[in-house]
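for the writeup, i need someone to sanity check this before i put it in the appendix. the sequnce is what the collaborator sent (i think, or maybe the updated version? ugh). structure was predicted straight from it, no edits. if anything looks off just tell me and ill rerun, i have time this weekend
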Amino acid sequence: MPRRKLVLLLVEGESDNRLLTPSIARLLRDRPVEGAPFRCDVLPAVIHPEEYREKTGKYPKQDIVETITEFIDGFFDPNHSDYRWSDLSHIVHVVDLDGTFIPDELVRYTAGLPRPIYHRDGIEVSDVRRFMENRMARRASIGRLIDVSHLNHTERPKRREIPYRLFFVGRNLEDAFADEAGSNLTDDDKQRLAYRKAMTFTTNPAVFEQRLITLNNACGSPQDWRDSWRYVMDRGGCHSLERCSNLYWIRDFIASSQVTLTDAPRRKPRKANRA
């Protein structure tokens, strides 16, 4: 199988990687899929630089696109992966929405919660200010990324433009794919659920494909990928808490986009130091 057909799957955590990477690889059939978990939420990373550095070893950039590009650079380090940028054909990035676009008044304070509790009609949190700051950063990052069509990597004399697309699951992965709407799952619980569902979806890929169809139809039966984003970004309702996803459009993305090569900009000559 040609290495340059690699699809890189950017996900939030290990359970997302364990469930989605083999399932999507089985769905795409003729392409290798490599999962790359951030092990944190990259969308608000710019306002939590120390936390992001603790998880990834790098400080985030001001531009979320540069942060993601640098993360991929690190992922393709020879000590971590056998793949290179030159093997890439597509970059698929999947994020949880976590109610990012619901009206502010539906975020309610409840004392003593170790983590947010998500309902279909609102969210309970113990630190409203931090949650709202995260929401604002996540909205800004999503707004930036849905307009990004490719990520650039330069290996002179050429610059490689690799197709990139941002996808979502409505509340979180467990809600969308493992039928677990609760908010009290431990990391071990998530790993076990992810493993069981991955076994189901890889053994019976038609089951995974039907789930993608169902989750896509739950986005108001969108006409295309961008239309699905318009649905969940509607701030007048709770669509970003619903059980939905636009991963149905992944094959359309793979079929409609390809890597392009352009001449890399020339480096400006350094000025000689004067004595």
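The chain is about 35% helix and 20% strand. The radius of gyration is 20 Å.
thx in advance!!
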